Amino acid sequence: MTKAPTVPADPWRAFVNVLQIPETGLHRDIEADGATRAAMAEIAEVREIAFARAAFDLSPRSGGRVHVAGHLTARIGQTCVVTLEPIENDIDEDIDLTFAPAEQIPDIADAVAGEEIQIGAGDLPEPPEPIINGIIDLGRLATDVLLLAIDPYPRKEGAVFESQVTAADPEDHPFAGLKALKAAPKEPKSAGRSDGSQED
Question: Are 143 and 10 in contact (CB under 8 A)?
Fold first, then answer.
C-alpha cells in the first residue's frame, strides 16, 4: 500500500542567527518557492498559494532579545463556500514581535500575568516568542502569520446564503379548527323530539 506523502510541519524556513545581527539591525526579504507554497497550501487546506513573501527588520535589544518588525503579503486560491466557484484572496499583514532566549520566557510570562492581575489585561504586550538554539526562523513566523490570516469561510464578492423559506399556510395554526367551526352554518333547532312526537 502506497503511503500519502508527508508534509513537513514547517515547510517555509529562513533562519537568522541572532549573534550575527549587527547593532544597527538586519533586513531580510524572503519569498516562498513553488514547493514550499504547495506544502503550505496543503497544511492550510486551500486550493493554492499563488505567492507568499515577507520583509523583516530585526533589531537587537538588551538581555539577548530581538525585536522583529515586518510585513507579509500573499495571494490565496480558495473556493467560495456559497457558490463553490474558485476565488482569490489577498493577505496583507503587519508583523511586530519580540523574541527572547527560551530560558527567559517562563519568567517573562509570569511577570506579564502578574501585571494583568494588578491592572487588567488592557494593552499589555504579548510575551515574547522563544529564540531556539540562538536561531530565529523567519519562515516559520511568516507561515504562522499567513495561516492565521486565511479566511476559513471565503465568499465571492456579493455572494450570500439564500435559505429556502416555505410560506406559512394561513390555515395551519392552532385556531384553524375553531375558525372552521365558527364559519360552519348553524342547523336550526327542531321544535319536536327526534321521534316526531309533541311534548304536552
Answer: yes
Which residue, among 131, 119, 134, 144, has the nearest Cα to 54 in the 3D structure?
144
Examine the pLDDT at 116 and tell me if it is beyond 90: no
Rounded-to-integer distance, Cα 178 and Cα 180, Å: 5
Does residue 24 carry a pLDDT above 80? Answer: yes
Q: Is residue 118 within a helix (H) or strand (E), and if so which, with residue range?
A: helix 105-119
* Residues 54-109: tens digit of each pLDDT: 999 999 999 999 999 999 999 999 999 888 999 999 999 999 999 999 998 887 77
Domain ranges of the chain: 15-149
Distance of CA 121 to the CA centre of its chain: 23
Residue where the block lists cell 508583523: 95
Cα–Cα distance, 66 to 64 (Å, whole number): 7
Q: What is d(CA 78, CA 159) in angstroms, rounded to the nearest whole number?
A: 14
**Amino acid identity at 10:** D
Q: Are strands 66-79 and 86-101 parallel, antiparallel or unpaired?
A: antiparallel
* Strand extents, DSSP E, 80-171: 86-101, 129-131, 135-137
**The pLDDT of residue 9:** 76
